[in-house]
Automatic annotation (TrEMBL):
Signal keyword on record: yes
Signal sequence residues: 1-19
Protein name: Uncharacterized protein
Source species: Seminavis robusta
Top-level lineage group: Eukaryota
Feature: compositional bias, Polar residues: 98-108
């Protein structure tokens, strides 16, 4: 019984003594304690080298995105800011606009007849009479072209603007190229014919160089009958399969009524070339049908075609 009491007294006394000693004795941290604190699993611990690199990359991406956003905002402000006549942006925009207009003008002008070279001080000068020729080249019935030429039925179509100059005589070379088939009849003097520098093929995707020519009117000797306008144009020529336009002069003829201003509106008038052959019984230069054409006054043609 005494032994049990002793153990009971010791059991109550030892915890009280332990608490008293701990309160009086400060705890000194050991190396193991600092090691546990410096562990990366503890809140507030320093990041490892790998996590620091990842953080730096994230910050770099954020700064790059911020710079791009600032640059975009500056561009938007500059585009919304009205430009003064003397500013660089105004000059650049005017220069770009002028270049665009020049390009469009060049594209249009290459299909148009250039301004007349006749001296403005000459009282006999005139603006001339302009037409647009719609030419359809291909094999026609009764032609003397070679049998293989255009046998496939392929055609070459083009438009060409021309200007007849009734008050400007043609030069000697152009006069000699006119067909001499009205020896006994009355004809006008051979006069100058201007053309656009290029014929327009396939809606403008292809072109053929042209150099103008000359024209004359063969007057009818019978009252009430129409006269005949004859002219030629010099062309560079072009080939498409088994059909071709030879390089040199293309000859045209169409009814008119006293002047080029009163040309017939009939279509399917002949286009011919002059080539050597035997179809007349002996070898000589002969006319061979190359295709057909019609002539439309330039104002009506521009309204119709849009160029």
């Amino acid at each position: 019984m005494k032994t049990f009491r002793c153990f009971l007294v010791l059991g109550c006394f030892v915890p009280w003594v332990s608490c008293f000693v701990l309160q009086k004795s400060p705890i000194t941290p050991t190396a193991s304690t600092w090691t546990s604190v410096s562990s990366p699993m503890v809140l507030g611990a320093k990041p490892t080298q790998e996590s620091a690199t990842e953080e730096a990359m994230r910050l770099l991406e954020k700064s790059r995105a911020l710079r791009e956003e600032i640059a975009q905002q500056e561009q938007e402000r500059a585009s919304q800011r009205p430009s003064t006549p003397g500013s660089d942006s105004s000059k650049d925009s005017m220069h770009s606009s002028n270049q665009l207009q020049s390009t469009k003008s060049a594209q249009i002008n290459k299909w148009a007849v250039p301004n007349s070279s006749v001296d403005d001080d000459d009282d006999s000068s005139s603006p001339g009479v302009e037409y647009r020729l719609y030419v359809d080249i291909g094999r026609e019935e009764g032609t003397w072209m070679e049998p293989r030429w255009g046998a496939s039925g392929r055609r070459i179509e083009f438009t060409l603007d021309v200007r007849f100059q009734p008050n400007q005589l043609a030069n000697m070379q152009a006069t000699q190229k006119m067909v001499k088939d009205n020896q006994g009849g009355k004809s006008s003097p051979v006069q100058h014919l201007e053309s656009a520098p290029l014929a327009r093929l396939r809606s403008g995707f292809e072109e053929m160089k042209c150099q103008g020519g000359s024209f004359r009117i063969d007057y009818s000797c019978r009252p009430g009958q129409s006269d005949t306008l004859r002219f030629f144009l010099m062309v560079e020529g072009i080939t498409d399969g088994d059909v071709s336009i030879p390089q040199g002069a293309l000859y045209f003829s169409i009814p008119c009524f006293g002047s080029v201003a009163q040309m017939s509106s009939k279509g399917e008038m002949p286009v011919t070339v002059r080539q050597m052959g035997w179809h007349t019984g002996f070898r000589r230069e002969e006319s061979r049908i190359l295709g057909i054409f019609k002539a439309v006054p330039i104002d009506g043609a521009r309204r119709k075609d849009g160029f």
